[in-house]
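Sharing in case it's useful to others searching the archive later.

Someone asked me privately for the predicted structure of Transmembrane protein, so I'm posting the question and my answer publicly. Question first, with the sequence:
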Amino acid sequence: MFGFDVISFHVLVGMGWMFMVELNVMVWWMDGWMDVWIDVMWDVIMAGLGVGVAVIL
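And my answer, the predicted structure tokens:
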């Protein structure tokens, strides 16, 4: 019975650890996408402003 408890405990810890890793990878992946998205949007906004200024001038 004790052996089973130890094994199930390790499985739970392992699952918890895997969940944390998956969560970190997910956050890292989303963060990477947000950085790319912000960079693209920033480029688009700056290009738009550049064109707007060029048209005004």
